[in-house]
């Protein structure tokens, strides 16, 4: 079992930055693939980025060059650095952990980008 708690969300103006954190408790954090997802108002949940146990990363096209995912296995934490934020980035951001599939989810943290 893995428990995930996100933090770092808030209100920011367009062009600003935020860093989200996701703290994990439980065993073998370093073995999990970790992902960030988001769900905007009236939209379906969308995959944003992920980092493998070997720290390979992948991003959805709309955030490439603006967002950076990283992990600190010593702290059982995954981060999402978000720069050049746009109003369309407004969403609840959730982190998730996968061994094969994304089975563990946090509650989410709200990110609101004002124009």
DSSP helix count? 0
Quickly give the structural class.
Answer: mainly beta
Radius of gyration: 13 Å
Stretches with pLDDT under 50, minimum 5 residues: none
Shape: globular
Mean pLDDT: 96
Largest sheet: 7 strands, mixed
Distance linking N and C termini: 40 Å
Strand content: over 45%
SSE pattern, N- to C-terminal: EEEEEEEEEEE
What share of residues is helical? under 10%
Give the number of DSSP strands: 11
Structure, described:
By secondary structure, this protein is mostly beta strands. It is 0% helix and 57% strand. The protein contains no helices and eleven strands. The strands form two sheets. Strands 2, 4, 5, 6, 9, 10 and 11 form a seven-stranded mixed β-sheet that branches. A four-stranded antiparallel β-sheet has the order 1-3-8-7, with no helix packed on it. A hairpin with a 6-residue loop joins strand 4 (33-39) and strand 5 (46-51). The mean pLDDT is 96.
Overview in brief:
This protein has about 120 residues and is an all-beta fold.
List keywords for this structure.
single chain; 115 residues; mainly beta; seven-stranded mixed beta sheet; four-stranded antiparallel beta sheet; 0% helix
Question: Helices, strands, pairings?
Answer:
Elements lengths: L1 E6 L2 E4 L4 E9 L6 E7 L6 E6 L5 E3 L7 E6 L4 E6 L8 E8 L3 E4 L3 E6 L1
Parallel strand pairs: 2-11
Antiparallel strand pairs: 1-3, 3-8, 4-5, 4-9, 5-6, 7-8, 9-10, 9-11
């Amino acid at each position: 079992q893995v428990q995930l708690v996100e933090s770092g969300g808030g209100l920011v103006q367009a062009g600003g930055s935020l860093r989200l954190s996701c703290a994990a408790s439980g065993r073998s954090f370093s073995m999990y693939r970790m992902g960030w997802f988001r769900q905007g108002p009236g939209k379906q949940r969308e995959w944003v980025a992920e980092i493998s146990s070997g720290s390979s990363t992948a991003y959805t096209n709309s955030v490439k060059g603006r967002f950076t995912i990283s992990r600190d296995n010593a702290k059982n934490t995954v981060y999402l650095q978000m720069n050049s934020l746009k109003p369309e980035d407004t969403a609840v951001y959730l982190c998730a952990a996968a061994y094969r599939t994304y089975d563990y989810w946090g509650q989410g943290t709200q990110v609101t980008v004002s124009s």
